[in-house]
Specification:
heterotrimer; A: mainly alpha; ABC transporter involved in vitamin B12 uptake, BtuC; two-stranded antiparallel ribbon; B: alpha/beta; Rossmann fold; 6-stranded mixed beta sheet; about 30% strand; globular; membrane (chain A); transmembrane helix (chain A); transmembrane (chain A); amino-acid transport (chain A)
Chain lengths: ~290, ~240, ~350
């Protein structure tokens, strides 16, 4: 029983990471039709920024805060300086994000090396708290609580603010939003910034979980995030949350109760199943 | 809204639109008189909807479009709309995931008064369903919402595309009356297949065929002439 | 605004020209492979570009890799540039070719011929099955499906549940089972000719396929799938055909790659490998007859050379992918038609 609890909590922790990355990806795709590979770069950048700050100041909180800021700023720069030139050309946009992912990841590798770097986390995070006999590392709680807070904050933002309204409408029908006299480009920049910030946060937190940062972290997390986005439904914020939980839990259970790597393969099978049975994703809108 | 009643509200010269490899609009030119309803007519595929989308810049276009003296041909859609154009597209295109209230709120243009009183007067059903998600409403209700969005702001011109499509006859009648009211307040360009409606509302008519204007003049002149109507619209008008 | 990427090909296929230019092109086309085949005999030093004479094993190794990668790039562009299918899982089939060869030779009693046979069979069956699933959806969903299956392949190879792939360390080919002319440093030239032959054959097959009727349908699908439907054809069947052909050829390239590299390695299964393919075809010029070929050659060369020079170059320049990534970004922004479009521009100034 205690193993099950442990698996569930660590599964939810994984879900939290996926959600942070996937939600931004999903909104960016839903609103802008951009499949943002550069998200992987934000992830890695967030992790390494946190590492640099923690190395210099010893404060994890500051490290994470700076990572978020860096992610947001970089995302805004990327969107306004580069992506904006390519609106309307979907394939070139995707390719641009691919190029940025490769370049930024390589840049980080050249500065910090390919080996993992130790990330110093506060003692209490690595200690365990017992829940029903299961020894759960405290950092998982941090991860889950953060993700829940982000979910609530984003939901409120989307539901209550004007920009939230514009984003929700824009994901559904961008052309009509412009036909109401609204300049969607500001919404694009905002969504990109949010995506970048959340991805950087996820990268920093992944570093906390592993007590280390490495250049490959970004890519593997990104691929699973993409899968979560599709399963949840492109453009659906809630869908990302739901799919993240499903994928995270399933992955953990299958990896333990099944063979090594079974969880990862099951996730891929889940994707294949969704594509065959309900291509728009769990909470996505059917193509019009 | 104070309605302009004199002069030309909209002047279109040589509007060309290519969609994919198709040269859909091949130099469309026409004028829209201020005040009153100008009907944009033609068979299916003639290019009526494309003309509307071209005017708004929703599709890439070439040519000259002058709104009340101002050249809007190079402006992006949101700038065009901010000059005072309300758009009611074919298929309504209300935001299904948003509530009626949110749909209206989104349509509120900064810098303009928002005529909720007018909207609720014309469409009391909308007021009752403010918290309802637009996607769950009937076609008629969605049409009202789409029209309400366009009437909400101070607009100089409304572009309305086939509002009666798919609506039951009694709704069409209601819609026609709402449009008649709207026409008292703002210049309208109306694409419609329902010729009874056109007869009731339109002062002028412009006929498109295969991407070009083939006839323009008084609506009554066109619809009163069975020969012309059959030739350009392929259908006769039932005697009202 | 249309996708410049896919539309930088001539609106009309160039017709045979009269006069001296009429024979220039076929002569050049025939001469190039001959010239390339002669390279191992040339004891020529090419300073800066290569670290040694052209005929030396080291340089031949690089040239062999360039040929193999160019072949893979050509197969990739068949999907991307000519049929309009963006796949993020093409590397899976190269890996299939590499690892099937490795596994058959290492873990079974079958010889080299058996390995080749297995590669051919799997190279047909696997893309048939996976393609049938992935092609049920289009656009981005298709791209993600291919990514996911590619990732599944990567997981299988790296985690190695059946203990056959060698995991992260890769799988060396047992040289005693390989045909003698292909083994050993002395035979670097032979391996080079094999890689060159692969490139020439792959290129020829792809060109032939593109010129055939299905080839025209592929291009039509890329340009306007609805129109294909309207014509009464089933895009799905044609897309599957392109997918299987392209993947089959990629598997064969994987086999040759394993021979050149001496074994299978897990790098090929990673998403970055397929992303590299994408960079190759765009670099060269997607949707153009020899764009992918040029892109494959140039990219592989740069990746290798920059890696060699990394000790002398400092900072970010020591990472080939940084330079290539930045180059790619600049390319997308300013020269989306790739190298080929540069050539085209100078051509058109000369008048044609």
């Amino acid at each position: 029983m205690s193993t099950f609890i442990l698996l569930t909590v660590t599964g939810l922790g994984l879900a939290a990471l996926y959600f942070l990355v996937a939600s931004g990806l999903s909104l960016i795709y839903g609103l802008m039709d951009v499949l943002n590979f550069a998200h992987g770069a934000f992830l890695t950048l967030g992790a390494y920024t946190a590492w640099v700050v923690v190395d210099a100041t010893g404060s994890l909180l500051l490290g994470v805060a700076v990572a978020i800021a860096v992610g947001a700023v970089l995302a805004v720069l990327m969107e306004t300086a580069l992506l904006r030139r390519m609106y309307g050309s979907h394939v070139p946009q995707v390719l641009l994000t691919v190029g940025l992912l490769l370049a930024i990841t390589a840049l980080i590798r050249s500065i910090f090396g390919t080996d993992a770097l130790q990330l110093a986390t506060p003692e209490w995070m690595n200690e365990v708290t017992e829940i029903l006999g299961a020894p759960i590392p405290n950092n998982r709680f941090v991860l889950i609580v953060t993700a829940v807070l982000v979910y609530l904050a984003m939901s409120a933002f989307l539901a209550k603010t004007r920009y939230g309204l514009i984003i929700r409408a824009g994901v559904e029908n961008r052309a009509m939003v412009t036909a109401l006299g609204i300049d969607v480009r500001r919404a694009f920049t905002l969504v990109f910034a949010i995506g970048g910030a959340l991805a950087a946060l996820a990268g920093a937190l992944a570093g906390v979980i592993n007590n280390a940062v490495s250049p490959e972290q970004g890519m593997s997390l990104l691929i699973f995030a993409f899968i979560v986005v599709i399963i949840g439904g492109l453009g659906s914020f809630r869908g990302s949350a739901l799919a993240a939980v499903l994928v995270g839990l399933l992955q953990q259970y299958a990896n333990f109760y099944g063979a090594v790597g079974a969880g990862d393969l099951i996730v891929v099978l889940m994707l294949a199943a969704i594509l065959l049975v309900r291509p728009q994703g769990l909470l996505g809108r059917a193509a019009s | 809204m104070t309605k302009a009643t004199e002069g030309t509200m909209l002047s279109v010269r040589g509007l060309h639109v290519h969609l994919g490899e198709s040269h859909v609009l091949q130099g469309v030119s026409f004028d829209v008189r201020a005040g009153g309803v100008t009907a944009l007519l033609g068979r299916n595929g003639a290019g009526k909807t494309t003309t509307m989308r071209g005017l708004l810049g929703l599709v890439p276009r070439r040519g000259e479009v002058i709104l009340d003296g101002e050249d809007i041909s190079r402006l992006p859609t949101h700038e065009v709309v901010r000059r005072g154009i309300g758009y009611v597209p074919e298929n309504r295109e209300v935001f299904a995931g948003l509530t009626v209230q949110e749909n209206l709120r989104l349509a509120e243009r900064p810098g303009s008064r928002h005529h909720y009183d007018l909207v609720y007067e014309l469409f009391p059903r909308l007021k009752e369903r403010l918290k309802q998600r637009a996607g769950t409403m009937s076609g008629g209700e969605q049409q009202m919402l789409a029209l309400a969005r366009a009437l909400l702001n101070d607009n100089r011109l409304l572009l309305i595309d086939e509002p009666s499509q798919g609506l039951a006859p009694y709704l069409v009648a209601e819609l026609t009356e709402a449009l008649a009211r709207a026409a008292e307040l703002v210049t309208i360009v109306l694409v419609e297949q329902n010729l009874r409606m056109v007869q009731r509302l339109a002062r002028d008519a412009v006929v498109l065929d295969q991407g070009r204007v083939v006839w323009s003049g008084g609506a009554a002149d066109l619809l009163g002439d069975g020969e012309l109507t059959r030739q350009y619209l392929g259908v006769g008008v039932a005697k009202a | 605004m249309t996708d410049q990427m896919i539309r930088t090909r001539p609106a009309v296929e160039p017709r045979t020209r009269r006069g001296p230019r009429a024979w220039a092109k076929p002569v050049v086309l025939a001469a190039l492979p001959l010239l390339a085949a002669a390279l191992p005999y040339l004891d020529v030093q090419v300073p800066l570009l290569f670290d040694g004479p052209l005929g030396s094993p080291g340089v031949l190794h690089v040239l062999s890799l360039m040929c193999v990668m160019a072949a893979v790039a050509v197969t990739y562009d068949l999907l991307f540039g000519f049929t309009g299918l963006l796949s993020f899982g093409h590397g899976l089939y190269v890996a299939l070719g590499m690892y099937t060869t490795g596994i058959v030779l290492t873990h079974t009693d079958l010889g080299f011929a058996g390995a080749v046979a297995w590669v051919a069979v799997l190279g047909l069956v696997v893309p048939l099955v996976l393609g049938a699933i992935c092609l049920r959806v289009g656009g981005i969903a298709f791209a993600m499906a291919t990514l996911a299956f590619g990732q599944a392949g990567a997981i299988f190879v790296v985690r190695d549940p059946l203990r056959i792939t060698g995991g992260e360390l890769g799988l060396a080919l047992p040289y005693e089972k390989l045909p003698e002319p292909l083994v050993g440093v002395i035979n670097a030239g032979n391996r080079y000719w094999l890689a060159l032959a692969l490139l020439v054959v792959t290129y020829a097959v792809v060109r032939w396929a593109l010129a055939s009727r299905p080839g025209r349908v592929w291009r039509a699908i890329r340009d306007n799938e609805t129109r294909v439907l309207v014509l009464g054809l089933r895009p799905y069947a044609f897309k599957l055909m392109a997918f299987v052909l392209s993947s089959f050829l990629a598997s064969l390239a994987g086999l040759v790659y394993a021979l050149i590299a001496g074994g299978a390695h897990a790098e090929v299964t990673e998403a970055t490998f397929t992303l590299g393919l994408l960079v190759m075809v765009v670099l060269g010029g997607s949707g153009h007859p020899y764009g992918a070929l040029i892109g494959g050659l140039v990219y592989t060369y740069l990746n290798h050379r920059l890696g060699q020079l990394s000790t002398t170059l400092g900072g970010p320049l020591s990472e080939p992918l940084f330079i290539l990534g930045v180059l790619f970004v600049v390319l997308i922004l300013f020269l989306p038609g790739g190298i080929v479009s540069l050539v085209r521009r100078t051509e058109s100034k000369g008048g044609a």
